[in-house]
Amino acid sequence: MNKKQAVTSLSALAHEQRLGIFRLLVRRGATGLPAGEIAAAVRASPTAASFHLKELERAGLIRSTRQGRSIVYALHVDAVRRLLTYLTEDCCQGNPEMCAAPINTSKTLCCVEGDVK
């Protein structure tokens, strides 16, 4: 990941509803949720939720797939891992293992593409 990609990802997260959607999809893992359920969960109109989902997708943090008549959005796990790695790769004067303690990996990015643990 480069600086421009990181800024795009962080900019997408710098909005209250988008951050809420992102955190919802982190909890949901690779299975994702239909757009309508996401809108209801974050109390956004369908139009607002669609706009925010497209911004998160444009930033590469989530992916969409069509399932019948629904569009299902899910976390793009690899992209989020790349962002977290980029943010912490120079942690503690080149000792990134020191940054591992505050990150509870059992709760963050608990899934592998297609598999929720």
Annotation keywords:
single chain, 117 residues, alpha+beta, Arc Repressor Mutant, subunit A, three-stranded antiparallel sheet, two-stranded antiparallel ribbon, 6 helices, 5 strands, 15% strand, elongated
Mean pLDDT: 86
**CATH fold label:** Arc Repressor Mutant, subunit A
Number of domains: 1
CATH architecture: Orthogonal Bundle
Q: Give the strand tally.
A: 5
| CATH 4th-level superfamily | Winged helix-like DNA-binding domain superfamily/Winged helix DNA-binding domain
Q: What form results from the Cα inertia axes? A: elongated
Structural class: alpha+beta
Largest sheet: 3 strands, antiparallel
Polypeptide structure, described:
This protein has 117 residues and is an alpha+beta fold. It has one domain: Arc Repressor Mutant, subunit A. Helices cover 51% and strands 15% of the residues. It contains six helices and five strands. It has helices at 3-13, 16-28, 35-41, 46-58, 77-88, 91-94, and strands at residues 33-34, 62-67, 70-75, 111-112, 115-116. It has a three-stranded antiparallel beta sheet. A two-stranded antiparallel ribbon has the order 4-5. Helix 2 (16-28) packs across helix 4 (46-58) and helix 3 (35-41) packs across helix 4. The longest helix is centred in the N-terminal third of the chain and has 13 residues, at 16-28. The radius of gyration is 15 Å and the shape is elongated. 18% of the residues are buried. The model is unreliable at 105-117 (pLDDT under 50).
